[in-house]
Write a structure and sequence with these properties.
The complex is a heterodimer of chains A (about 325) and B (about 290).
Chain A: H1 2-28, H2 36-45, H3 50-84, H4 96-109, H5 112-116, H6 120-142, H7 148-173, H8 178-186, H9 194-211, H10 215-221, H11 225-230, H12 235-257, H13 263-275, H14 279-303, H15 312-335
Helix pairs in contact in A: 1-3, 1-14, 3-9, 3-12, 3-13, 3-14, 4-6, 4-7, 4-12, 6-12, 9-12, 13-14, 14-15
Chain B: E1 2-11, E2 15-24, E3 29-33, H1 40-47, E4 55-60, E5 63-64, H2 70-76, E6 77-80, H3 91-96, H4 112-125, H5 140-153, E7 158-162, H6 170-186, E8 190-194, H7 198-204, E9 207-212, E10 215-220, H8 222-225, H9 228-235, E11 239-243, E12 250-254, H10 257-273, H11 278-287
Parallel strand pairs in B: 3-8, 3-9, 6-7, 7-8
Antiparallel strand pairs in B: 1-2, 1-4, 4-5, 9-10, 11-12
Helix pairs in contact in B: 4-5, 10-11
The chains are: A mainly alpha (about 325), B alpha/beta (about 290).
């Protein structure tokens, strides 16, 4: 018992330390390379230096956003994997991100945010995500037990349909800012609105706190739904609440930064190897891991083709897609 | 006391339990037996709140199980089911899950008490020595013991098991049923067990219910339920029921087709010799 508490504390400290290092590295790297020392000095030297502006107006918001989005997506991945009892589901592979993007696109084109404020975008994302999760879950119920191939194929098709709809919307509306939308869909941590950054940070931290209400449910669900009932878990209520939570995290993340795939697949997968599958550590571990991973990927995206930059979704797509194929071939037999 | 009243239920209108009425008293070792597909597991699932009844009800100590709080139900009945997906847990972690219904509000870690309960459940079932092994690494017999340990650590009043001895060799069959008998006697735990091995049911159960086609065919003491006529009717198989010379419980023996034919030939010869007591001879042929 004590041994386990010590282990968990150590793991959290390691992940927190790694996250801090990555964030510091990200703060000092970029088209204008600042050494860590310069960075620290500029923090104390005041508001008006160029270094200060680069750090606090450009890089820091991205790091905060990377922390919030990476954590949220990874957390959503852990929750969905717990619910579907499968390590290959995550917001992107199940088409939930796609549904959220469609919701956000609709809200953007209808210019809802002009009349009702910026918060309509995350809300539209949430609705889109929730719709897809409900759709998948209803199919799942009707067939009693949907096989994982079916689940993944449905997800891919939902992504495909969503992106086609988004293109349709773009074609009809002839938006001037086409490049912006394309860039947003590919996933980018470039976000000028401090309001949305703060909202995202709040949502993901609140999501982490809320997910801990359900650690018992998630732990019991590892044994299957019937077993969870036998352990005194109200599975229907837990599933409903967790679906809403996963939709909220995904919808909000997509509305701010577009579709960033595979964070929720890679990180929980690696975390299970590192921390084990107990959700008391897995939830927080995945959050920290996801945050660090996305900040790392974003830093790569910023420096790999300087002075221009890549959408971070490209980096996670390449890394995550390869990892997905690896996980599928390695564990395919036991999953299917 | 478990009281099943006019219970009708099933999956997707495909298979049904039809108006089951059954009373299971506390303190005994109760067996549910019957052929494949007769509804044994379905009945167990209906009794453990997994399967919702279409009509009728299941009362646990006078209360409909669907109205009992989830956690309270889990503290009263523990279930050992047939297929548990256990991924990459080790034995101790797995057994610790049994304490979930006892967590209070914001409690985040197991207490000393929880650990003591788990340790004594492991000691009782003899699973302590492989507590650090992964569930996927242990044998089928050890796995059943681990499942029973987890159920025990739930500190239930009722223990419900779904064929805990299937696919096990006789050593493990006897070991598990001896353990259940011991728990039943020493902890006065009510044990309800689905078995398809009639001889194990006869040897260990205080009472048995024989299911056939989704209905209770007969319920009572093993020696009353397990007679050759009943078994032949339900299982459509020729059997011989003997008495176990040690326990004097009924013992069901099977007869191969070859032997049956040889026996019939013998009867035919006897029929010619004694045309009048044909029926007597046929009976004798089956019984001996």
């Amino acid at each position: 018992m004590n041994k386990r508490t010590i282990r968990w504390t150590a793991q959290i400290l390691i992940l927190g330390g790694a996250l801090f290092l990555i964030a510091a590295l990200s703060l000092s790297l970029g088209s204008a390379a600042l050494s860590v020392q310069t960075a620290i000095r500029s923090i104390f030297s005041g508001y008006n230096t160029i270094e200060y502006n680069i750090l606090f107006e450009i890089r820091l918001p991205r790091i905060i956003l990377g922390f919030a989005i990476g954590g949220a997506l990874s957390l959503a991945g852990v929750i969905l994997q717990g619910l579907f009892r499968n390590p290959l589901v995550e917001p992107y592979t199940m088409g939930i991100s796609g549904g959220a993007a469609l919701g956000v696109s609709l809200a953007t084109i209808l210019k809802l945010y002009q009349s009702m404020g910026l918060a309509t975008l995350p809300f539209a994302g949430f609705l889109g995500a929730a719709f897809v999760i409900m759709l998948i879950y209803t199919i799942n119920i009707r067939k009693k037990a949907l096989k994982i191939q079916g689940l993944l194929l449905t997800g891919v098709m939902i992504s495909f349909i969503s992106s086609s709809f988004i293109m349709l919307i773009m074609a009809i509306s002839r938006t001037e800012d086409l490049h912006g939308i394309v860039f947003w869909i590919m996933g980018s941590l470039e976000e000028p609105s401090w309001f949305l950054i703060k909202l995202m940070l709040f949502t993901s931290l609140a999501g982490l706190a809320l997910s801990y209400i359900f650690w018992k449910d998630l732990n019991a669900l590892r044994l299957g739904e019937e077993e969870a009932v036998h352990l005194g878990i109200n599975t229907e209520r837990a599933k409903r609440a967790l679906f809403v939570l996963a939709s909220l995290l995904t919808g909000c993340a997509v509305s701010v930064s577009g579709i960033i795939g595979f964070v929720g697949l890679i990180i929980p997968h690696l975390m299970r190897m590192f921390t084990g599958s107990d959700h008391r550590i897995l939830l927080a571990g995945s959050f920290l891991g996801g945050a660090g991973f996305l900040i790392f990927c974003d830093t790569l995206a910023r420096i790999i083709v300087t002075p221009s930059e890549l959408p971070v979704g490209v980096i996670t797509g390449i890394l995550g897609g390869s990892f997905f194929i690896y996980a599928l071939t390695k564990r395919g037999k036991s999953i299917v | 006391m478990f009281e099943i009243k006019d219970l009708t239920c099933g999956y997707d209108k495909r298979f049904h339990l039809k108006e089951i009425n059954l009373v299971i008293e506390e303190g005994g070792l109760f067996g549910i037996i019957g052929p494949n597909g007769s509804g044994k597991t379905t009945l167990l699932r209906a009794m453990t709140r997994v399967l919702k009844p279409e009509s009728g009800e299941v009362l646990l100590r006078g209360k409909n199980i669907w109205q009992i709080d989830f956690r309270e139900l889990a503290r009263t009945i523990a279930v050992v089911s047939q297929n548990v997906s256990t991924d990459e847990l080790n034995v101790e972690e797995f057994i610790l899950l049994s304490r979930i219904p006892y967590y209070k509000g914001l409690q985040f870690l197991e207490t000393k008490h929880d650990e003591e309960i788990v340790n004594s459940a492991m000691a009782l079932t003899g699973t302590f020595k492989f507590k650090d092994r992964l569930i996927s690494e242990i044998s089928g017999g050890e796995r059943q013991l681990v499942l029973i340990a987890r159920a025990l650590a739930q500190e239930p009043k009722f223990l419900l098991l779904d064929e805990p001895t299937s696919h096990l060799d006789i050593t493990h069959q006897v070991r598990i049923l001896d353990l259940l008998k011991k728990l039943n006697k020493e902890l006065s735990l009510t044990v309800i067990i689905v078995l398809h091995d009639l001889n194990l049911a006869s040897e260990y159960c205080d009472r048995v219910a024989l299911l056939s086609d989704g209905a209770v065919y007969k319920e009572g003491l093993p020696q009353d339920v397990l007679d050759y006529k009943t078994i032949e009717n339900v299982y459509k198989t020729v059997v011989v029921v003997e008495k176990n010379p040690v326990s004097s419980k009924p013992y069901v023996l099977l007869v191969s087709e070859e032997e049956r034919e040889r026996n019939e030939e013998k009867n035919n010869i006897q029929k010619i010799k004694h045309p009048y007591d044909k029926e007597v001879k046929r009976r004798k042929g089956i019984e001996y």
